[in-house]
Fold:
Amino acid sequence: MKITKDLYQSSLALLTDFYQLTMAYAYWKSGKAEQEAVFNLFFRKNPFQGGYTIAAGLDYIIDYCRNFRFDEADLEYLEEMQNSDGSPTFQKEFIEYLRNLDFSCDIEAVEEGTVVFPNIPIVKVKGPLIQCQLLETPLLNIINFQTLIATKASRITEAAKGQSVLEFGLRRAQGIDGALAASRASYIGGCSATSNVMAGKLFDIPVSGTHAHSWIMSFDSELEAFHAYADAFPDKCVFLVDTYDTINGVKNAIEVGKSLREKGKEMVGIRIDSGDLAYYSTIARDMLDEGGFPKAQIVASNDLDEQIITSLKIQDARIDIWGVGTKLVTAYDQPALGAVYKLAAIRKSSGEWEPKVKVSQQSIKINIPGDHDVVRFVKSGKALADMIYLTGNPVEKNNYVIIDPNDPTKRKKININGLEKDNLLKPIFEKGKKVYLRPDIHQIRENAKRNLELFDKAHKRLVNPHIYPVGLEEGLYNLRTDLVLKMKNYDE
Ligand SMILES: Nc1ncnc2c1ncn2[C@@H]1O[C@H](COP(=O)(O)OP(=O)(O)OP(=O)(O)O)[C@@H](O)[C@H]1O
Ligand SMILES: O=P(O)(O)OC[C@H]1O[C@H](OP(=O)(O)OP(=O)(O)O)[C@H](O)[C@@H]1O
Ligand SMILES: O=C(O)c1cccnc1
Structure:
């Protein structure tokens, strides 16, 4: 079976909404297919009512774009499509056009693991209108999910305050591809390992785990089961102690731990998967300490998320390692990020770029027009603000005012002397050629960790986080306002 990594290396051009193909056809028919355009992918609200988001999914996008082509089976399928009157949906010449389509866009993107915020372009695609359009759905599919899960994982690992979080989600994830992508994104977001062995193999993520209740239940007694497991894995024993009676389970673990020690081996720890985790972990800790196992670790699992972990910490639960499944990989409390992909500018026949805006009653839905970039200002290792500005207007002045795109009364003055400037968008493809050297998954995870350190804890807290300033440079703000007024015919 070909999934994920392999899948993304074969033709996936039909993994799109039908309307992308009908638009592609209509662009082609009206002679606009090759007109140059710029699209931006961005989201409007941080997920989980949080204060930040971790970008993820770029590696999949790179594979997707490198393999962007319609293969013969795809073309045959499209050629056979019919309108309701039996006429072919797509002309033969269009099928031929698709056959020869060669990916030739420029793509810039923020690197995976980067902390991002609403309105920041995460991916920018510049190239023939038809190609930009065809990329909309797959790019959104990839970024929306992985960014969501990386962010959830980051919130959970932040709540664990440096302790290991194991991702146990495979059995409850949204299908096979959802599970694999979730394991990858969870690792980027800070999890230490996954229980998903295929994700381990495909993505080079550490694999880890304990054992299930069925192991205990298959024996006549818990003690017998622990002994048998210790025989099989003398160096990797984490005993699940709550199958029948948690306190008795800890006693049995200690007994087997002692016999392991006689053989020169150490039990790694225990896992508690039910009941009051604060209460049982505290009792278990005391029992393990008194029984001569102060180093034995306590793993906890059972429907955990960042809120429960935080609560358990406040209760002084004695938990060392957190196993988190369902609520992480399904992004339980917010199942979609809601990122969108919008046309920002189009090149006219005169050669000039024309900025484009989508007007909406809801100001949050008005996109940022024009080819734009984003710079992050950093001072002494702390991020101060992000400024979105028109590409081609380099950030060279001393003083800037950035304006909140949704509330023009929210402004921030920035004197950029002495500040570091980080241009978040990095070149990924130039004219269809990959120019980006991909970091490995461990470097991406490190990038996420380093990125988070740039931000004050006020932006990272779970409840009512402090809003990090992201604003439009004044010129861009004015362009957007003028354009909206013009489109609403208020400009006379
Ligand atoms: N001390 C605690 N403080 C807050 N939440 C807790 C505490 N202990 C456990 N929890 C959480 O409360 C929920 C308890 O769920 P539930 O009632 O289904 O558990 P259980 O009945 O003990 O377990 P199971 O159904 O697996 O036998 C879980 O989400 C668990 O993580
Ligand atoms: O709770 P999650 O965060 O999804 O973590 C994964 C869960 O999967 C296992 O449960 P299992 O499938 O054996 O079911 P049960 O323990 O709920 O009965 C494990 O014991 C965890 O409880
Ligand atoms: O290894 C474990 O303990 C594990 C794996 C998957 C789900 N729950 C627990």
The longest helix spans residues 129-159. DSSP finds 16 helices and 21 strands in the chain.
